[in-house]
């Protein structure tokens, strides 16, 4: 049985933030958690993440500096762009979502 929200999510995402800011002493100690939370998987391995699994709900959660890291990965940027464009064309996107699209992914 899976508990919602997953009790590991916040600690793993905080650890991923430390990883991205290069503030971890031993990065390998937490990689055993890869596969537990998809957002964590993205943050610890932006270049190799399977962007087919990218959840558009994450878009509005990420600060600017994470978007800037993601868009350096051309494949990831393009996959997100397609998903975001579809969401916008369906009329399901908030203003903030649309702004993020044009600022980073268009």
Task: Report on this structure.
The chain has 106 residues and is an all-alpha fold. It folds into two domains: 1-45; 55-106, no CATH class. It is 50% helix and 0% strand. The chain is built from five helices and no strands. The chain has helices at 9-20, 38-44, 64-70, 74-89, 95-105. The longest helix is centred in the last third of the chain and has 16 residues, at 74-89. The termini are far apart.
Task: Spell out the blueprint of helices and strands.
Blueprint: H1 9-20, H2 38-44, H3 64-70, H4 74-89, H5 95-105
Helix pairs in contact: 1-2, 4-5
Summarize the structure.
The chain is mainly alpha-helical. Helix content is 50%, strand content 0%.
Q: How many strands, what sense, and barrel or not for the largest sheet?
A: none
How many β-strand runs? 0
The percent range for helix content is 40-55%
H/E element sequence: HHHHH
Which regions contain 5 or more consecutive residues with pLDDT less than 50?
Answer: none
- The general outline is globular
Beta content: under 5%
Instruction: Determine the structural class based on helices, strands and strand pairing.
Output: mainly alpha
Count the helices. How many? 5
Rounded mean pLDDT is 86
For the terminal residues, how far apart are their CA atoms?
40 Å
Radius of gyration: 14 Å
Total number of distinct structural domains: 2
Keywords:
106 residues; mainly alpha; 2 domains; 5 helices; 0% strand; globular
